[in-house]
């Protein structure tokens, strides 16, 4: 239970710190978020809990394949100044395009 609370505190702290940094320095906040900290932490927690290097390696491989697909979420925000879509429409369109890409990937992996 103590290890769970340590993992929870560290992981949550990084996410909260990045959002607080972004309030004052958006580029620095984006830099912190683009570091693969969450992936590194979750891989470490996975290995720590299972002691299975193959499982951690498989997890890393899947992250490698899925990161480019997750970038589709940001495309509507990149073009917001041209489209003038409201925030939630950009969010929805990004989420849907990313979800479609993930769905196609899942079908391809079968």
List keywords for this structure.
single chain, 110 residues, mainly alpha, 2 domains, 86% helix, 0% strand
Overall structural class, as computed from helix and strand content, comes to: mainly alpha
Helix-strand topology string: HHHHHHH
Number of domains: 2
> What fraction of residues sit in β-strands?
under 5%
Number of strands: 0
**Rounded radius of gyration (Å):** 17 Å
Share of helical residues: over 70%
Low-confidence stretches: none
Overall mean pLDDT stands at: 90
- N- to C-terminal separation? 36 Å
Q: Report the sheet with the most strands, covering strand number, pairing sense and barrel closure.
A: none
- Overall outline: flat
**Contiguous helical run count:** 7
Tell me the layout of helices and strands:
Layout: H1 2-24, H2 26-34, H3 37-50, H4 53-70, H5 75-78, H6 80-83, H7 87-109
Helix pairs in contact: 1-2, 3-4
Q: Can you describe this structure?
A:
With 110 residues, this protein is an all-alpha fold. The protein folds into 2 domains: 1-35; 37-110, no CATH class. It contains 7 helices and no strands. Helix 1 packs antiparallel against helix 2 and helix 3 packs antiparallel against helix 4 (53-70). It is flat and about 50 Å long. The model has no long low-confidence stretch (mean pLDDT 90).
């Amino acid at each position: 239970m103590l290890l769970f609370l340590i993992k929870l505190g560290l992981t949550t702290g990084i996410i909260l710190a990045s959002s607080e940094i972004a309030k004052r320095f958006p580029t620095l906040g984006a830099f912190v978020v683009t570091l693969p900290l969450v992936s590194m932490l979750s891989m470490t927690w996975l290995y720590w809990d299972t002691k299975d290097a193959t499982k951690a390696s498989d997890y890393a491989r899947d992250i490698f394949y899925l990161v480019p697909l997750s970038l589709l979420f940001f495309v509507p925000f990149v073009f917001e100044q041209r489209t003038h879509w409201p925030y939630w429409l950009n969010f929805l369109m990004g989420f849907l395009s990313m979800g479609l890409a993930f769905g196609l990937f899942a079908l391809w992996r079968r």
